[in-house]
Amino acid sequence: MIIRPFNIADKDHLTDIFKLNVPTYFAANEIYDFEQYLSQHSETYLTIEHEGKIIGGTGYYVNTSDNSGRITWIFFHPDAKGLGSGKNAVEYCLKMLRADPGVKMLVVTTSQFAFKFFEKFGYELVKTEKDYWGPGLDLYLMEQPVFDAP
After folding, report:
1. So where are the chain's domains?
2. CATH of 2-145 given 3.40.630.30, 3.40.50.970, 3.90.1150.200, 3.30.70.660
3. pLDDT block averages, 10 residues each, the chain of length 150
4. Phi and psi of 52, rounded to 5°?
């Protein structure tokens, strides 16, 4: 598996994979939001490949208004399940975010379908909101503090 920086040639492949995750993990209206995210934060978006094929992506960014490091828009082709791609992608993003001295809190906004996955990385559930992303897709806001090394 290769995790590499996003480039504009990846957009159509990633959008097609994103659509395969609708409506199970994302609402249809989020396709536009994802494309907007790529146009505004492509410098910290990552493309994930396996055996030379794009299988998914993830992003991360620092929100300077609240000193949070956020993992965002993580998804994979349904056929890529079980390859360890999600684990590797999250570990990569966490490494990048923890290296930023301005990040004091790690945050992820997900759904009831993925929050257990993020618990494995130390995230704790802070808040839920029913049908936030769309019908049947609830918001699960999760956080974990970043502690400075002694």
Report:
1. 2-145
2. 3.40.630.30
3. 95 97 92 93 94 96 94 95 92 95 95 95 97 93 79
4. 80, 0
CB environment 14-48: b (16+ within 10 A), e (fewer): beebbeebbeebbbeebeeebeebbeeeeebbbbb
Q: What are phi and psi of 23, to 5 degrees?
A: -100, 10
In DSSP notation, 40-98 reads HHGGGEEEEEETTEEEEEEEEEEETTTTEEEEEEEEE-GGGTTSSHHHHHHHHHHHHHH
Distant-in-sequence contacts of 88-96, Cβ < 8 A, 24+ apart: 88/1, 88/3, 88/48, 89/3, 89/46, 89/48, 89/56, 89/58, 90/58, 90/118, 90/121, 91/121, 92/3, 92/46, 92/58, 93/46, 93/58, 93/59, 93/60, 94/121, 96/44, 96/60
Query: How many CA atoms lie less than 13 Å away from 7 in the CB half-sphere?
Result: 5
